[in-house]
Amino acid sequence: MNYLRLEIICWSCLLIAMAVSTEAASVWKLPTAQMVYEDLEKCRQESQEEDAATLRCLVKKLGLWTDESGYNARRIAKIFAGHNQMEELMLVVEHCNRMEQDTSHLDDWAFLAYRCATSGQFGHWVKDFMSQKEVER
Q: Against a cut of 0.90, is the pTM above it?
């Protein structure tokens, strides 16, 4: 019996170690405006131009959204770290994410939480970020 418990504990530790190394291996990278525009075009085609579906597709491709927990506030804050308000931005994103959470209507959840979060200063930062690509053209 003790041997079986020891074996279960060893397998559990191995699975945890594998999960940690897998997560570390899938390193998320800051998106550039170019990446956003390219993914946006793909998502528009996939979602047949429907705004909420396009947005959810885009933020999933950028690694900023999961259907289980919504927006990843930490990653979003990293994109806009230059504004030196990461904690405040994370609070806004987390608040809007919770307020609009609706796991039965994922596209609407993504869209409404985005609209909520970008209704203030963060919305201006998003526009500035996206205009970087227009300057490059």
A: no
